[in-house]
Amino acid sequence: xxxxxxxxxxxxxxxPVLQGVSLHLDAGETLALTGESGSGKSTLLHLAGxxxxxxxxxxxxxxxxxxxxxxxxxxxxxxxxVALVFQQFNLIPSLTVAQNLSFHARLAGxxxxxxxxxxxxxxxxxxxxxxxxxxxxxxxxxRVAIGRALAARPALLLADEPTGNLDxxxxxxxxxxxxxxxxxxxxxxxxVTHSERIAARLDRRAHLSGGRIA
Length: 214
Ligand SMILES: Nc1ncnc2c1ncn2[C@@H]1O[C@H](COP(=O)(O)OP(=O)(O)OP(=O)(O)O)[C@@H](O)[C@H]1O
Prior knowledge:
By secondary structure, the chain is α/β, with parallel strands linked by helices. It has one domain (28-43, 70-213): 3-Layer(aba) Sandwich (Rossmann fold), CATH 3.40.50.300. 35% of the residues lie in helices and 25% in strands. It contains seven helices and ten strands. The strands form two sheets. The protein has a six-stranded mixed sheet, with helices on both faces. Helix 3 runs parallel beside helix 5 and helix 5 (138-150) packs parallel to helix 6 (168-185). The chain is globular, with a radius of gyration of 17 Å. The model has no long low-confidence stretch (mean pLDDT 94). Adenosine-5'-triphosphate binds at residues 11, 14, 17, 35, 37-43. This is ABC transporter ATP-binding protein. Keywords: ATP-binding, Nucleotide-binding, Transport. Residues 2-214 form the ABC transporter domain. It comes from Antarcticimicrobium sediminis.
């Protein structure tokens, strides 16, 4: 469902970040991307999620070639099949947990109340629906962010250091839930991490070094 072929990317005025990167991800598969700080992991994740353009090569996401799309074409494709989870939880502070959870699914016009109830239960958020993000722990906030990301059943979940702000216990609990939920919803997961322990839990791993997959 995601094919990255010989992709290169240089930010204006800087040296090349990606130099001929190739990578693929099948439907429902989980892939960990590791690499030193500054090696281009977040850049590659953004390209995979149609968040930014690239200089050469091709990325095919859910059957659509990204090289031919402008900003609005990329935005439409993202709405259709991609969700993101970041290290900073990025919840909307003025919305309750329940409202945050259904926010993206509502925007995408793909609300499925039974699935959102199931997600809420599996994430252990049932009691917290009326709270606001500032009233939650970091682990609870990231569980809401994962639920919000998966509420519209995206084909691809992109996660950039999703447990980077959590201690080991909360990190393990969040990873357990994320891996269970992507399996249940048939979502492919492309996850950037510095943790060998987390990388080892995913189906496959790729390492970025010197602008290439090593
Ligand atoms: N918008 C941008 N404009 C210019 N340079 C950028 C931009 N975003 C990233 N870079 C540069 O591209 C390189 C790769 O950055 P990127 O964030 O992809 O690395 P990373 O492997 O995710 O790093 P980290 O593990 O520290 O988060 C870095 O040298 C960074 O400074």
